[in-house]
Amino acid sequence: MAERGTTGREQGTDGDVTPSAADALAIIQQAQSHAASRLTPSIGVFYTIWGVVWVVIGLVWFLAGIDVVSPAASGWGTGVAVVAASVLSAVIGIRTGRGISGPSTRQGLWYGLSWPISMVLLGVLVGALGSTGVPGDTMAVVGPALYVFLAGALYMLSGAIWTSRVDYVLGIWIMVVAVVSMLVGLPASPLVIGLGGGGALLFAGVRALARRSAR
To answer: Which of these, 24, 33, 127, 131, has the minimum number of CB atoms within 10 Å of its CB?
Structure first.
């Protein structure tokens, strides 16, 4: 007849230890957690990708502002960096989300779509604002600041939705960076955005990746 030990496991007459229901549940939960960590991309990957993009964009436009490179070259550099990061982010998201469904997946999809939709509409708004006769130098400061401020608001929203303190604080910080970039003006404003916003994203990305690898 089997005896129950103090560890919550059952010991047979031959001395073998059989896992209890609690032990089995713990093993299953550990396996599920390990599988989820392998199948779900770390948010640190996306932080890092876009952090690099922000830094690159900020640097090339700062260099354009001090006449080191041409605005055309900065424009092309910005376009290439944004497209490459968008494609890479989409590929990572699609590959890791394949075969997964449910309310949380739909929620993530809707939130993800809110980024391109809001950015495109903001672009229309900025274009309309520029056509009202606002000086070009003013628009060169206000336009990027509005995009950065919107990105910060979306990050803060994601923090509220998924109760992520990192996202919430990051969103507030990015909005502060947007305000500061408007206050300092050209030619330093792109550098403030690139190093302040992009640097924060890189910090959050490296931190998230380091914590994930330590599990």
So the answer is: 131
The rounded distance, in Å, linking the Cα atoms of 146 and 123 is 10
My answer on whether 86 and 182 are in the same domain is yes
54 in Cβ contact with 178 (< 8 Å):
no
Note the pLDDT tens digit of each residue in 20-76: 655 555 544 454 444 344 434 568 888 999 999 999 999 999 999 999 999 999 999
Looking at the structure, tell me whether residues 16 and 69 fall in a common domain. no
Q: How many domains does the chain fold into?
A: 2
Encode burial over 13-23: b for 16+ CB neighbours within 10 A, e otherwise: eeeeeeeeeee
